[in-house]
Amino acid sequence: QATLEESGGGLVQAGGSLRVSCVATGRAFSSHVMAWFRQAPGKQREFVAAVRRRDGGTSYSPSVKGRFTISMDNARNAIYLQMNSLKPEDTAIYYCALGHASSLSTTSRGYDYWGQGTQVTVSS
Fold first, then answer.
1. How far apart, in Å, do the first and last CA atoms of the chain sit?
2. How far apart are CA 109 and CA 15, in angstroms?
3. Which of 18, 82, 87, 104 is 20 to 30 A off residue 93, Cα-Cα?
4. What's phi and psi for 45, nearest 5 deg?
5. 39 near 92, Cβ under 8 Å?
């Protein structure tokens, strides 16, 4: 069993920056990939970014590529999402996910554990 806890969400103006964090405990040591997803009101959960523990490989959604950066701290079993040039359409609950497969999956099915989420609101 693994437990994920996100932090760092909040309210920011369009064009601003925010960093969200996620710390994994429990079985996190055996995970291969960690990722961020988000869900806006009335919309389905969507992939944002993923990072692979073994080689630091990353994957991004086209909607955030060039603005967001995912990083991993293996020693702390933590990942971070640095979000720059934020837009109102980035407003959502951001969820951390952990998977034991080695591929950088962009779908929810690729992940075994999920955090409770942290709210990010971007005002126009």
1. 40
2. 32
3. 104
4. -65, 135
5. yes
Q: How far is CA 72 from the centre of its chain?
A: 11
What sign has the CA pseudo-torsion 83, 102, 72, 21?
A: positive
What digits encode the pLDDT tens for the residues 54-110?
Answer: 899 999 999 999 999 999 998 888 999 999 999 999 999 999 999 988 889 999 999
Residue of 32 and 117 predicted with greater confidence: 117
What six digits make up the tokens of 28?
Answer: 């996190």
- If DSSP codes are grouped into helix, strand and coil, which group holds residue 109? helix
pLDDT of 30 reads 63
CA 87, CA 90: separation in Å to the nearest integer? Answer: 5
DSSP 105: -
Q: Is 77 exposed, middle or buried (0-12, 13-18, 19+ CB in 10 A)?
A: buried
Contact 63, 120 (CB under 8 A): no
Q: 34 with 96: CB under 8 angstroms? A: yes
